[in-house]
Amino acid sequence: MRIHVRKPPANRGERAYIPSMISYTLFETVIGWAGLAWADKGLVGVYLPEADPENARRGFLRRFPNAVEAPPTEAVTHAIADIRELLAGQPVDLTDIPIDIARVPEFNARVYEIARAIPPGETLTYGEIAVKLGDKLLARDVGAALGKNPWPIVVPCHRVTAAGGKLGGFSARGGVNTKVKLLAIEGAKVLEPAPPKKDLPKAKPQAAPQPSLFD
Hints:
Helices cover 30% and strands 14% of the residues. A hairpin with a 2-residue loop joins strand 2 and strand 3. The strands form two sheets. A four-stranded mixed β-sheet has the order 3-2-1-4. A two-stranded parallel sheet has the order 5-6.
């Protein structure tokens, strides 16, 4: 059902939720150590790759202090394999990975549903998602919802950009630079370059470098 509103209702759509135990696991990708947290209804969080697995572990435990490290379930093992392939540059569809969408407000859930349908290598603008929601004036609210996305990569908020070829924001670690690199891995056309680093010496060229979120 489409709700034609200019602002998301302040408290509408909050869903009753019974907490369940959260488990997490870390896994290595071609660009570092990522992590997944899950409960009985699907993923509850995704952690973007870190160069150091212990940093990833600490980051997870800041978000989920009561989470317990555990072997991945069959569904989580499948998710790990697909995320590894996507970060290696393969156009993998992650829409079949179950996420615990009941943990977020209804408006955010609708934004994430649209974002999940964006294929690798393609983008939508905040305004285009707002139009799909029924009101072009919701663009700012779309951006706010994506800034709270618990499932980066699985809910590919990096594929949502501002109008006119601008990248827009990215709340995950590394900010816009991370967004650019994820889009580049997927082969998306990015019109706005990542902001240049300041006061850092230029790195010497290396042969066949791997994509990295840490440069």
